[in-house]
Write a structure and sequence with these properties.
5-stranded mixed beta sheet; 7 strands; two-stranded antiparallel ribbon; alpha/beta
Length: 164
């Protein structure tokens, strides 16, 4: 996998979501990455940096998941002529390394989008439009209320016992 670009977009004054966009020269579709991995980094980046022991964060969880449900975003994004797919494995290169650390420091409020190189079928104007649609969907996903348990810590709500 040849990844040659990594950019980030920070949305809003109070960060709701950090979006990383990396180019995968082998990609044929836009790929929404759900998780970042902590281990397995063997290749150096373009500056020669290689994580010590192949690990992003020593002692960190093996996998961190985005708070954005990428599968749901994938299902809702439809731009004619552009395929958008879901992935749970971003590879082990600079994009995934950055994504894992972003997920860790941002407590899951991060996203990684891998894009194919620009081409006749995917000119910059179309890619920009698709990224705009995807990021808007991601922000809507982040803004959805999370399901809460019916009885939370410090709650004064009483639940009746079964059979009463």
């Amino acid at each position: 996998m040849g990844l040659v670009f990594l950019g980030s977009l920070c949305c809003c004054l109070f960060t709701q979501l950090v979006v990383h966009v990396g180019m995968d020269t082998a990609a044929k579709a836009i790929i929404l990455e759900q998780s970042g991995k902590n281990q397995g980094y063997r290749d150096a980046d373009i500056r020669g940096f290689r994580p010590e022991g192949g690990v992003c964060l020593p002692g960190g969880p093996d996998v961190l998941e985005s708070g954005v449900c990428m599968k749901a975003v994938c299902k809702r994004v439809a731009v004619e002529g552009v395929e958008v797919i879901f992935s749970r494995d971003a590879g082990r290169y600079v994009c995934d390394y950055t994504y894992y650390l972003s997920l860790h420091h941002g407590k899951g409020c991060a996203a990684l989008i891998h894009v194919p190189p620009l081409s006749r079928g995917l000119p910059a104007s179309l890619l920009g439009r698709v990224l705009q649609v995807i990021i808007q969907e991601m922000l809507e996903e982040v803004g959805k209320p999370k399901h809460k348990a019916p009885f939370e810590e410090n709650s004064t709500m009483a639940l009746p016992a079964k059979g009463n």
